[in-house]
Amino acid sequence: MKYHRVPLGPIQTNCYLLVNDDKECLIVDPGGEGKKLNQLIHKQQYKPQAVVLTHAHFDHIGGVDEVASHFSIPIYVHKKEKSWLKDPAVNGSTFFGLGEVTVQSDVTLFAGEGSTTIGSFSFELYETPGHSPGSVSLYFKEAELVISGDALFEGSVGRTDLHDGNHEQLLKSIHTKLLVLPEETLVLSGHGGETTIGQEMDHNPFLNGF
Questions:
Q1: Does residue 208 belong to any structural domain of this protein?
Q2: Do 189 and 141 contact (CB within 8 A), yes or no?
Q3: What is the tens place of the pLDDT at every residue in 146-203?
Q4: What does DSSP say about strands 152-153 and 156-157: parallel, antiparallel, or unpaired?
Q5: What's the number of domains the chain is made of?
Q6: pTM for the whole structure
Q7: Which residue from 96, 137, 150, 185 has the least number of CB within 10 angstroms?
Q8: What's the DSSP call for residue 94?
Q9: Which range of residues forms the domain containing residue 146?
Q10: What is the CATH classification number for the domain harbouring 171?
Q11: pLDDT in tens, 43-97
């Protein structure tokens, strides 16, 4: 499996395309510029299976409707944030003055964590709340990578000053769900570049002393 990191939207949030040998792909967090993303997918001749959201903040959902409707694919989000998709006051778009960013399409809900299969893709879904209550991370063991959303970044962690954020809960999520993964695991974050679990264990200043 390979991946593409595609920064999209008003603050260049990382969207990820996870692609298997048959050119099937999962689309994770299409934060905006849906038309641009659709064109890229067509150019690469990929076959999208679903849109998966690590959480429902505005900068991760801005392109969802345009992409999902274009390819007629389902949308997955944690049940705790279903209502956020239609509420600009909660998903942050009103707070940041970016108009009303919403998702109007029907969605499929993740009820909880565990082994998950979408199309031909299988992964472990981890609940990693703190940045938001329904934040999830996607761990692909064979590919040795985890998509951490806005929980863990290179040298940093997610902000917790937005709706229902909780810093202590975020640190607990990182330590109990992410830092227990093999140190060589590649971390694909919602913003910024790639890192590894080992690098963050050794050098992330926000994780020291927890």
A1: no
A2: no
A3: 999 999 999 999 999 999 999 999 999 999 999 999 999 999 999 999 999 999 999 9
A4: antiparallel
A5: 1
A6: 0.97
A7: 96
A8: T
A9: 2-203
A10: 3.60.15.10
A11: 999 999 999 999 999 999 999 999 999 999 999 999 999 999 999 999 999 988 8
Residue 28 burial by Cβ neighbours in a 10 Å radius (0-12, 13-18, 19+): buried
102 lies in some domain:
yes
Tell whether 11 is covered by a domain: yes
Task: Tell the residue number behind the tokens 């060589």, with chain if given.
Answer: 184
Outline where the chain has alpha helix (H): 34-44, 58-61, 64-71, 88-91, 167-173, 197-203
Residues 6+ away with beta carbon under 8 Å from 177: 126, 127, 128, 137
H-helix or E-strand spanning residue 75: strand 75-78
Cα 126 to Cα 1, 78, 80, 149: the distances in Å are: 20, 11, 14, 11
Tens-digit pLDDT profile for residues 94-125:
988 888 999 999 999 998 899 999 999 999 99
